[in-house]
Design a protein that fits this description.
The protein is of the alpha/beta class. Helix content is 54%, strand content 11%. Strands 1-2-4-3-5-6-7-8 form an 8-stranded mixed β-sheet, with helices on both faces.
């Protein structure tokens, strides 16, 4: 079933497909044949493939016949079924080879055995790293992660129950992905969005809903600008939004961090490594969290929960150690610009904030949304952390699954 295939194991690069085909059938495919086979596995018809590639229908049909002859298979549906099964097994852990072992252990700790990691390589020489959780046939939601929370506090069993599959593309600098410091921050973001859009289009995932948290909004808006109307909807949670005037009134340490990230990024990366080691001591972490969230009673209730506080502590330690370059790279961006781009996106847009979240200017956000089709929702008596620990509601809304349908 092509629809099932396109919703299942999809983020597979050409080299993997070629290797699996050769191991199973003892024949080597050309690069063009691999691309045709990949498209067929993803659910494209020959007519769609030929139109997309601007090649005659007859040419692509003959190439598919050649592939089937090499496999010794007479029915296309059988070829797709065999290759889909083999690829599902082959790629389950292949992406983990792209992550340094300590960072891989950190991800396994938070995601368990249900984590699938993909590392598709692009024709331009760059590669992406994508984390996937939840049932492989679940409703996909693209999660554009924040700087300090690249993982979501929801377990695999719950994702299975609600039928949602989370796909998280990691930005440069996170978990071992390289950062090209010679590029400007805007150019790096543009390259990331271009690459991700290419992968999503190739595998018919360009219509999935997008859920962005905090710093992830910049990447989400850049991606949606490239994908256009195909994106089902965009949900943004707790993204910084204030503009240059509001930024002048930020805490001094935030302004200093912004300046260091632009002037001395590599020194700041080392500082995050030290911070990760310092956060191992609970007293140090508690002091930092109190400074960040003491304005929000809802967030302080989260921190009063020993299990959740331990989860956050372990997360901050690992992020500081393994993703400092990514945090610094994100910090170099002008984080309010995503709001100005938002109104031009021809898709459904929902911005959600807790009323106790203080790093954004709600009045300015409201003015930006006025007269546009973007909805701004301020949730009473909630903060950033408290809403993040209720991320199931936002995942459901992004996926178009009614919250009233929740079970358990």
């Amino acid at each position: 079933d092509p629809d099932t295939v396109s919703k299942g194991e999809t983020l597979i690069d050409d080299a993997q497909i070629g290797r699996v085909f050769e191991l199973r059938f003892g024949e080597v495919l050309t690069s063009t044949e691999i691309r045709v086979l990949r498209s067929v596995i993803a659910g494209y018809s020959i007519k769609e493939i030929s139109t997309r590639d601007a090649v005659s229908h007859e040419t692509r049909r003959n190439q598919l016949k050649t592939i089937m002859a090499k496999a010794g298979i007479s029915r296309q549906v059988d070829l797709v079924a065999i290759m889909s099964t083999l690829l599902a097994v082959a790629v389950m852990d292949s992406g983990k080879e792209e992550i340094p072992p300590p960072a891989r252990a950190f991800l396994d700790r938070f995601h368990g055995q249900g984590l699938r990691i993909y590392s598709p390589h692009l024709a331009n020489g760059r590669r992406l790293l994508l984390l996937e959780r939840g049932p492989v046939d679940g409703c996909p939601v693209l999660h554009m992660h924040s700087s300090f929370f690249p993982v979501l506090p929801i377990d695999d069993a719950r994702l299975e129950e609600i039928g949602i599959r989370i796909v998280t593309p990691l930005r440069p600098g996170y978990f071992g992905l390289p950062v090209d410091w010679k590029m400007t921050a805007n150019d790096r973001m543009a390259a990331f969005a271009d690459d991700l859009a290419t992968i999503l289009r190739d595998f018919r995932l360009d219509n999935v809903p997008v859920y962005a948290h905090a710093h992830g909004a910049t990447a989400a808006v850049a991606l949606c600008a490239r994908l256009g109307e195909s994106v089902e909807r965009l949900l943004v949670h707790a993204a910084f939004a204030g503009g240059p005037v509001h930024e002048k009134h930020q805490e001094a340490f935030m302004r200093a961090h912004k300046g260091l990230s632009c002037r001395m990024p590599k020194m700041l990366v080392r500082a995050y490594g030290l911070l990760g080691r310092t956060m191992v001591k609970p007293d140090n972490l508690n002091q930092m969290l109190f400074k960040l969230f003491n304005h929000s009673p809802a967030d302080m209730r989260v921190l009063d929960n020993p299990d959740r506080r331990a989860w956050i502590q372990a997360l901050f330690c690992g992020i500081g150690r393994y993703s400092g370059p990514g945090i610094v790279s994100d910090s170099q961006l002008h984080l309010w610009h995503w709001v100005e781009t938002l109104e031009h996106l021809p898709i459904a847009k929902l911005l959600i904030y807790g009323s106790q979240e203080r790093h954004s200017n709600f009045d300015q956000l409201s003015r930006h949304c006025a007269g546009t089709d973007a909805e701004l929702r301020i949730v009473p008596d909630e903060g950033m952390l408290s809403m993040m620990f209720s991320c199931e509601d936002m995942l459901r809304e992004a996926a178009g699954i009614g919250i009233e349908a929740r079970t358990g």
